[in-house]
Amino acid sequence: MFNLFKRQKKNGCPNCYDKNTISFGADYLESKFISSIHLTDEIGGIKIYECEKCKTQFFKDENLYNKIVSGQIELLKEWSIRNLVCPDDIKREIEKIGLTNDWMLDKIAPCKIKLNNGEIYELTTVLFTSKPPLGHYYSMYKNIFFIDDIRQVSESKFGISLEIRQQAEKSEEKRMGFYPTVLKNKEGTKVILNGISIFFNSNNIVGSDLEFANEEWNHREKYIYDADDYEEKTIVIALK
Ligand SMILES: [Zn+2]
To answer: What's the pTM?
Structure first.
């Protein structure tokens, strides 16, 4: 009798029912689903899970299942065989630019890079992490390189100074997901840096032009916001 009132568990996984799923907890999976997720592979020490029903692959970060985006298995294989230790000369250049925390508490710096093949990328996040290059975070980048692809690192004109980035880490949330720091350029044009952003590129104003405006964000005032649609959005992965 009691069972009639119990909500029935669904077959499969959360992604079977919502393709926008990014991650979900193992406890949620257990309580709401008759899970069709099984361990199918291990690459570079990372266990790969797959839903039998929707064929989506996942990796686990502690208690969370995170969706693996198309193409990331190849990237993971590459990651597992690369030399990800940052060479000392490149490390010194990056430390001059300065490392700050990203939202996963890994270290990042805004850089201009030159690859071993001579290609140059001006909007590059160099990331020091011990985690594999999997999940939604990496799908935001157009180019993904590893530290052993890099010949040279220098300051990016789009990069925000270390002093501003350190201050911006402490900014307060004013609206949901909005952590403004008010900055200005030499002409006094005011712009907003949101949270732990490390680049600025909008209306011909670039990160290296910016300094503190020394005032609080005011919802009545007009500001320039970062375009955040860089065509070149690039990330370089090095071992923490
Ligand atoms: Zn599924």
So the answer is: 0.90
Q: What is the domain extent for residue 93?
A: 83-158+231-239
Distance 14 CA to ligand 1 centre (A): 6
CB 59 within 8 A of CB 120: no
pLDDT at 4: 56
Q: How far is the CA of 103 from the centre of ligand 1 (A)?
A: 28
Residues 137 and 87 in one domain: yes
Cα separation, 226 vs 198, in Å, equals 11
**pLDDT < 70: residue spans in the chain:** 1-7, 229-231
pLDDT of residue 198: 95
Q: How many angstroms is it from 47 CA to the middle of ligand 1?
A: 17
Token pair recorded at residue 64? 């969370």
Signed CA dihedral, 143, 179, 156, 131: sign only = negative
Same domain? 89 vs 181: no
For position 104, what pLDDT does the model report?
83
Determine, yes or no, domain membership for 77.
no
Q: What separation in Å is there between the alpha carbon of 13 and the centre of ligand 1?
A: 4
In a domain, 132, yes or no: yes
Distance 233 CA to ligand 1 centre (A): 30
Provide the pLDDT for residue 227: 84
How far does the centroid of ligand 1 lie from the alpha carbon of residue 16, in Å? 4
Q: Is 93 in the same domain as 146?
A: yes
